[in-house]
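pls design
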């Protein structure tokens, strides 16, 4: 009786993964360097806030400023603004970039408030004909729930050092001194905003203050008022940036590479917030928002 000879199966490579996952892994393994000589597109989308997101945008802007592969940059704006300090941080970062290489701002949907401030760093501002532009102004808001707490029988104990510490606390009414201090801060931000717009647009401060009522205009109106240079789309902005840099009008969207789990989580949270906002708008009604 003979014993069958055992054979070692060939060491076949791992089976090919299904299309979506296989392609995803290939994209993750691919190098992330931007092709040289192309106009970089930096997206400024959504509300502007502090924290990691703004820090990532500023770091990306710094890398583009220092990169020899990037001849020019277009900042693609679709944002209602947000934090005054974060918006000013973005303005300063973009201003440093504009000192090194051509920078054009393209307002596609909304370029309002802090987003418009950030766009002021660009040498040229292009806006879609029906983009919403402006909202030059500053607002400080916060809820006051002192009466609600009183009705619920809730008391809040406050121990502090410094008579203005705790300014803006929602559980009590603000004092006259706190209200005056808050107005002083708002006025200081407003004055700085007006000065940056006046310098960028070549307008007098008096003229900008006439426009800085917090209202918005369509792109065609903003062009007539001198708030933007040209009515056009993103492609037009790329053409202008490429011409200023002396390169062909080719573009590439750039962003900082992040971990896959971070990107997936952000996508999920964005979709969830959009669904909640849509539901609230459907229930409460809504219209043009800035």
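designed seq:
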């Amino acid at each position: 009786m003979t014993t069958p000879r055992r054979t070692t199966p060939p060491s076949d490579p791992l089976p090919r993964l299904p299309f979506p996952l296989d392609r995803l892994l290939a994209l993750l393994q691919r190098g992330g360097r931007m092709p040289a000589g192309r106009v970089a597109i930096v997206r400024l989308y959504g509300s502007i806030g502090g924290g990691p997101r703004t820090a990532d945008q500023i770091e990306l802007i710094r890398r583009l400023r220092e990169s020899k592969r990037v001849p020019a940059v277009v900042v693609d704006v679709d944002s209602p603004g947000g934090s005054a300090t974060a918006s000013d941080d973005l303005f300063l970062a973009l201003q440093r970039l504009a000192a090194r290489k051509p920078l054009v701002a393209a307002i596609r949907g909304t370029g309002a408030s802090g987003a418009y401030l950030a766009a002021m760093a660009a040498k040229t501002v292009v806006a879609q004909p029906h983009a919403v532009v402006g909202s030059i102004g500053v607002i400080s808001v916060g809820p006051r729930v002192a009466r609600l707490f009183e009705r619920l029988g809730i008391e809040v104990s406050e121990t502090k050092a410094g008579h203005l510490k705790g300014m803006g606390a929602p559980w009590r009414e603000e004092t006259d001194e706190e209200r005056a201090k808050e107005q002083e801060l708002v006025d200081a931000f407003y004055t700085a905003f007006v000065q940056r717009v006046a310098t960028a647009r070549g307008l007098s401060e008096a003229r900008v203050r006439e426009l800085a009522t917090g209202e918005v205009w369509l792109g065609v109106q903003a062009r007539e008022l001198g708030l933007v240079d040209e009515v056009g789309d993103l492609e037009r902005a790329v053409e202008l940036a490429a011409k200023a840099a002396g390169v062909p009008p080719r573009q590439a969207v750039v962003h900082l590479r992040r971990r896959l789990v971070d990107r997936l989580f952000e996508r999920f949270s964005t979709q969830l917030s959009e669904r909640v906002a849509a539901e609230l708008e459907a229930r409460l009604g809504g219209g043009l928002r800035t």
